[in-house]
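Milestone 3.1: sequence recovery, worked example.
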């Protein structure tokens, strides 16, 4: 029975590590910062950034804090949207949701949108996107 709980804990940990990594990547690419540049700010290699973003290596609390400072977000940003779809006593079947932070076009859209300085234009684009998305339902 102890092995069962250890496996569940590892699965939950890896899921969270992947989520945090994808949020780091999303924010980094939204700002147009390369892995090399982020790594140099943190004093680590771009390969380490790759491992963090893929969830292969866990990000320590102090490193996550430093990443948040470099990327100008609150540290809670990296946990936002995380849905713990399993607990140690639930079934082995997780519930999956589409993670828009892993889609390249999402970060490209946000980067382009953030370059629009006219508030009225931004508002109209936002209204247009909401209108189009409501038609898709």
């Amino acid at each position: 029975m102890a092995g069962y709980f250890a496996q569940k804990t590892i699965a939950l940990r890896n899921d969270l590590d992947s989520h945090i990594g994808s949020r780091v990547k999303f924010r980094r690419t939204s700002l147009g910062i390369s892995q090399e540049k982020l790594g140099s700010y943190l004093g680590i290699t771009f390969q380490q950034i790759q491992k963090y973003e893929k969830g292969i290596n866990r990000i320590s609390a102090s490193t996550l804090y430093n990443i948040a400072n470099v990327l100008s977000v609150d540290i809670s940003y990296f946990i936002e949207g995380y849905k713990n779809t399993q607990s140690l006593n639930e079934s082995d079947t997780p519930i999956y949701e589409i993670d828009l932070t892993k889609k390249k076009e999402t970060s490209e859209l946000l980067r382009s949108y953030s370059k629009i300085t006219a508030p009225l234009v931004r508002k109209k684009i936002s209204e247009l996107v909401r209108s189009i998305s409501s038609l898709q339902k």
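Residues 103-137 form one domain. Residues 2-30 form the longest helix (29 residues).
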